[in-house]
Amino acid sequence: MRGVFNLRKIPGVEFVAVHTKDEILAAMDEKSVILVDWEREPAECADFVYAAKAKMAKVPVLILCIKQKAGTTFAGIKAGAAGVINKPFNPDDVIRSIASTIKKGQKTRPTVNVEFINPFIDATRNVFSSMCGVEVARKKIFVKDDYKMLGDISGVMGLSGTASGTVVISMSSELARLVVGNMLGEPPVDELTQDVVDATGEIINMISGQAKASLVKTKYHFTISIPKVVTGPGHEIEHSPGTPNIVVVFEGAGHDFSLQVCLAANDEAEA
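RESULT FIELD:
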């Protein structure tokens, strides 16, 4: 694959260049780490990742991409990649990413509490349908370890109480601008204006508020903070180490977006 040939000289690391899905599958074993150069056709790159994970789910797949390339991170993670290495990079970047990915894969994943997730999924559907004029469907749910977000703009809500952590809604620029246009009863705006930023914060605020109301019926009770908004392709949002970081991918109006729920119950709630 292009862009990694210069890594062959790293001591203790053997890189095998492959160019087709069949070559990837033939070269795989349980010690493999697969690097997919996301400069080919996106569908072809995704096919590489899907095929590798289907053959050997525990083998980590990392994608190599240009940081500013819109949608690349989302597409790669959605296909099943464990992480992203941004171009340009040096060999040390790759070694650190590989070592970190392998280390994460060796850890026992924390238990996912579905009581946390379902109210946020239901609230996301309701808010996008009733407030944003976009009907959405859930496509995929998975656990993510890194801090990279899958969209160009993310609304972040901190929660505290009998459980604590963060909830994030992350969208592409195109979907965010479409949603804001719908909320204002106008055509989609041309760029990520302050209206788009404010609306994204309000969306995560409404999702969190509705989920909070649903969870009142359980042993989990929250206080929500003032929402924050982060923008820019490839931006990162940190979450608490050791806390399940659940990502739910939705599709709406022809665009994918993600809900990220990273919450852990406090001791008194688990008692």
